[in-house]
Amino acid sequence: MRAHVVVLVVLWLLAFVVRVDATRARTSAGHGDVAAYHQVARNLYEGRGFVQDYVADRLASPTSLPTPSNTWWRPLPSIVGALGMVAAGEGSYEAGKRAMIALSSFVPFVVYLAGWILLRRRSAAFAAGLLAVGFHLYLDQPSQILSHGPYALFAGGALVLALGVERTSRGVPWFGVLFGLAYLTRGDAQVLPLVLAAAILAARLFGERRPLPWRGLAAAAGAFVVVAAPWWVRNLRTFGSPMPPGMSKAALARTYEDWFLDPDRLTWERYRDGGLERIARQKERAVLDAAAFVPLCMSRSVDRGKDVPPSAPVRRLHVLGLWVLGPLLWIGFGWLLVRRRRAALLVLLHLGLLIGVYGVVFSAIGRNSFHSSLFSVYPIFLVCIVAAVDLLLAPLFRSRPGPRAGATILVAAVLAGLNVWAARPHLQAKYGGVERMLEPYRRLAAWVEAEGIESPVFFCRNPWQLSTEARVGAVMIPPGGIDAILRAAATFGVTHLLDETRGKPGLLGIRPGLGPLLERGVLRRIPADEGLRVYRWRSPGR
Fold first, then answer.
1. What is the rounded CA–CA span in Å between residue 143 and residue 149?
2. Mean pLDDT of 56-61
């Protein structure tokens, strides 16, 4: 136990330093999901509770601003960010980010435990944890106010405990705690109990035929309820149900944009209008996309499958993943199938369940969400990479376990360093792009303050970023024609429209219905800061 504690401290310190250094240029939320989590964290810190000042999805049928938050995204990432703000005494993004870095710096220890369970050698397990310190996919998103860090930690930890059932059932009660925290982070965590059940049955039927751990399962169920109950109580008070209504209706979205429709329009009748053949094609594409992504995740996860020109900042990562990490992963997983078959099959079951969630059920919105769900599996993948390294080094160190262990650790440390080196230009370019993207919203905030506009509510394309950066109300322009736009404007008290597009035809040419409203005088272009296209919204008949 003392050795494990020492490893935990060493890995956490290394991971914290590396992540702080890698993300020091990211000081703003930027991306839609990050902005959504950050705004809720800031509202929690300011004592406003779980509310948001924008409307994007309409799954819970919001009727005014501010609206209850977390109708789709789970609350834990925002809670972590808020705790960081409390500790720092300020509601800045940087404060929330540091809290997330502190939490996600425990992920290498989860990888270490996975290595300990699967490889059964402390040196190989430490090598896996060391690789996780610099693993490029752990540097960026898990360090931001997003679900990736908590999910990698809690869902990854729960999966590791499920794999450990083959050896012992003592970790089953802790599975309930980790599952509860993962459940508060991402909805797809709900597949984890199925993996645990399969692990227990496999140990019962094909192992030492131990009795079923009923007491541990009862403790796990109780722990899960204790962790999740406060969130259910909040939802009952806010929505009248344990979980926000309308979430399941996202399964009836024909395109990603349908997610922003009024929930009354997300019906089975509308969904099947295009025919069962179209539905089958949609789900087939989603399933194949997810399944094809898994073996290529080390390279394709950073470029979304696009061609990478030699001059692109992500080129280093692409080459490293394609020619080094990817092949090692395939070799290591093959070793796992041969030497730890039950564990490998459980990992495949977990992957299959995730593909089912985002390929078969939530097909229209599943691609990026499936990619993010793999953070629960990356700890096992890193162990597979180290297993491959150890296997390839074996012929060089016959009957010399000490030097072989040292060589495995050294190679893992080199791979971790290469990951950090390869990620730097990509992260620098990405964070620079975030700052450039946010500049119009900051100029808009200055213009609103200079004009003395009270309680403005803007129609826009990116309500998350606009509301978070400019601290104004923001409503996504709904899909559909004039009637849908006018209803949304009246419901949420829209006062202005911000055209965030560049060039022609602009937002008025992209959204059907806006052009005629300009002709009818509902929209009127007004002078604003240079580079901003702002329109005043005048309700018809006013």
1. 7
2. 83
Q: In DSSP terms, which residues pair with 498 in a beta bridge?
A: 534
Query: Vertex 60, ends 56 and 65: CA angle to 5°?
Result: 55
Q: Which residues of 205-235 are buried (b: 16+ CB within 10 A; e: fewer)?
A: eeeeeeeebeebbebbbebbeebbeebeebb
* Cis peptide leading into residue 66 (ω within 30°): yes
Q: What is the mean pLDDT of residues 86-109?
A: 97
Question: Per-residue pLDDT averaged across 342-350, rounded?
Answer: 96
- Tell me whether strands 473-476 and 54-55 are parallel, antiparallel or unpaired: parallel
- Residue 247, amino acid: M
Q: Is the pLDDT reported for residue 510 higher than 80? A: no
128-178 pLDDT tens trace: 999 999 999 999 999 999 999 999 999 999 999 999 998 888 899 999 999
Q: What is the pLDDT of residues 200-239, one digit of tens each?
A: 999 888 877 778 889 999 999 999 999 999 999 999 999 9
User: How far does Cα 223 stand from its chain's mean position?
Assistant: 24
523-526 and 533-537 strand pairing: antiparallel
Residue with token string 């964070």: 431
| SS3 category, 364 | coil
Structure-token match 């990509």, residue found: 426
CA distance 211 to 492: 58
pLDDT at 508: 59
Alpha helix (H) ranges present in 340-475? 341-355, 366-373, 378-393, 401-451, 463-470
pLDDT in tens, 438-478: 888 888 888 888 888 889 999 888 899 999 999 999 998 88
Q: Are 443 and 526 in contact (CB under 8 A)?
A: no
Q: 302, 317 in Cβ contact below 8 A?
A: yes
Q: What is the separation of C-alpha 446 from the centre of its chain, rounded to a whole number of angstroms? A: 31
Separation CA 45–CA 49 (nearest Å): 8
Q: Exposed, middle or buried, 292 (CB in 10 Å: 0-12/13-18/19+)?
A: exposed
| The dihedral formed by the CA atoms of 287, 292, 297 and 303, expressed in degrees to the nearest 10 | -90
Give the β-pairing of 523-526 and 473-476.
unpaired
404-423: b or e for each residue (b if 16 or more CB lie within 10 Å)?
bbebbbebbbebbebbbebb
pLDDT of 265: 78
Q: 363: which 2 tokens?
A: 């097909």
